[in-house]
Specification:
Protein name: N-acetylmuramoyl-L-alanine amidase
Distance between the termini: 46 Å
GO molecular function: N-acetylmuramoyl-L-alanine amidase activity
Pfam families: Amidase_2
Radius of gyration: 16 Å
Number of strands: 7
Strand order of the largest sheet: 4-3-5-1-7
CATH architecture: 3-Layer(aba) Sandwich
CATH class: Alpha Beta
Organism: Bacteroides stercoris
């Protein structure tokens, strides 16, 4: 088992009106010379969670942090016009929250962050500000995942 102290959330930069499967993701990552999917988990718009890489294997998506991180990607990130926006569905929000809570239980003390939060602090003020982001992924504060309310109970028939 490898040492893990970081859980990084990514988005696939997929238009909210389009579909992007784990097979598309794997194909794209292989075309970039990765050995396969660069994330441990992928969450579809319908909330389904796919395991793409064993947790024992480091991933390839957060340069400088790969050796000790677990990476989760959501099929989301772009609005109808291709602008970077938080487009996660309620199903994804719920699945992501549950997965993160389980991982934090299994890896206590781990830091939760978005990919953008791993950018260098160029002005050395101790805060990664938007003008310092190398990537804008995520379009929301990853810590807010734990504050999101659970979805309402389904109506019983």
């Amino acid at each position: 088992m490898r040492f893990t102290n970081l859980i990084v959330i990514h988005c696939s930069a997929t238009c909210c009106a389009c579909s992007y499967t784990e097979h598309d993701l794997i194909t794209d990552h292989r075309s970039q010379s990765f050995s396969g999917a660069g994330y441990h988990y992928y969450i579809y718009k319908n909330g389904d969670i796919k395991t793409l890489r064993p947790l024992e294997r480091s991933e390839e998506r957060a340069c400088g942090y790969n050796a000790h991180s677990i990476n989760i990607c959501c099929e989301s990130g772009l609005d109808e016009r291709g602008r970077l926006v938080a487009t996660r569905t309620d199903f994804q929000k719920h699945s992501l929250r549950m997965l993160v809570m389980l991982l934090l239980r299994g890896y206590p003390g781990s830091r939760l962050c978005g990919h953008r939060d791993l950018s260098p602090d160029f002005n050395r003020n101790g805060e990664i500000e938007p003008e310092e982001w190398i990537k804008a992924c995520l379009c929301f504060d990853a810590a807010s995942i734990l504050q999101e309310p659970p979805p309402p109970n389904p109506v019983s028939l």
